[in-house]
């Protein structure tokens, strides 16, 4: 654990702690950066996070899924992205843009039969998929031009690539469906195209949901590990797992072996494994490292503690867990739009949506 990983693109990591991609709904309606979003991320870099991801940022207007989402979809976005990358670099952090397409949450589903999400959604044609891939490439090139250190392709949490990977969501019988290799084709082709289009020193990673968690749609762990292996073979510099417990075992499978361990064992040693899920204390981070996670990724604890990397080693550190008082959130660079967004999560903010029973 002592030496820090160097990504195979050559980027030497500065810590084993990273900030999770966190949707904060603070962008302007056209997807350009707002001062509140800049302040929110810069506060985490100044607090000691040495790896900062943006929120899921749409690569095209057709992949744009919710209000306030950051865009990396056109030249109009580049000025704000440049300001953000510059501020994060000056604060001492590496930075990545999380490249996102909402799939059926936006406009395109793997198949029209699975488009329960809304009227504006249709089954993707081969032409649509070629365009999606080109949009990811253009967004990655824009991210590099803006001065970021890398991109993370969002292949987790139920959006476009997860929908293609999940057998329940992808009944296609063409090249982008069928067996696991077919269902992974869109993700792997996109990754290869992105890797080929950016500079060799620019980091390209992939976030995955390697195992079906709460929604019972997705992959069994053996398939998740196989996709992670393919992602590494296709040139990813890091693999990032979205989990509910970064040290835990798969919820619906009869094994005590941690998910991270299975995926770590599937990856070549030179590809670090990042994972998020329930890291509140240094003891949680140690448990995740023991389970095979090279870089622990913090979501909620980083919302409450922008300076977690600095303060969490103190013997009297007690993480502030939800529900959080709104005054506390305002004091840690959570702007009004993000506060309103967090209030919608059950049990997250005092006075917001109540916790589920
Ligand atoms: C408010 C909020 C916004 C999130 N937005 C994103 C996102 O944009 N992209 C993503 O991949 N995951 C997103 N996630 C998931 C987190 O990255 C992380 O995986 C999850 O919160 C689990 O980590 P934690 O237990 O440390 O909070 C979000 C989570 C929260 C709570």
Describe what you observe in this structure.
- By secondary structure, the chain is of the alpha/beta class.
- The protein has a single domain (17-321), classed as Aldolase class I (TIM Barrel, Alpha-Beta Barrel), CATH 3.20.20.
- Helix content is 34%, strand content 13%.
- The chain has twelve helices and ten strands.
- The chain has an eight-stranded parallel β-sheet.
- It is globular, with a radius of gyration of 19 Å.
- The N and C termini lie far apart (40 Å).
- The model has no long low-confidence stretch (mean pLDDT 95).
- The chain binds flavin mononucleotide.
- Flavin mononucleotide is lined by residues 20-23, 55-56, 98, 154, 156-157, 207, 242, 276-279, 298-301.
- Residues 20-23, 55-56, 98, 154, 156-157, 207, 242, 276-279, 298-301 line the site of flavin mononucleotide.
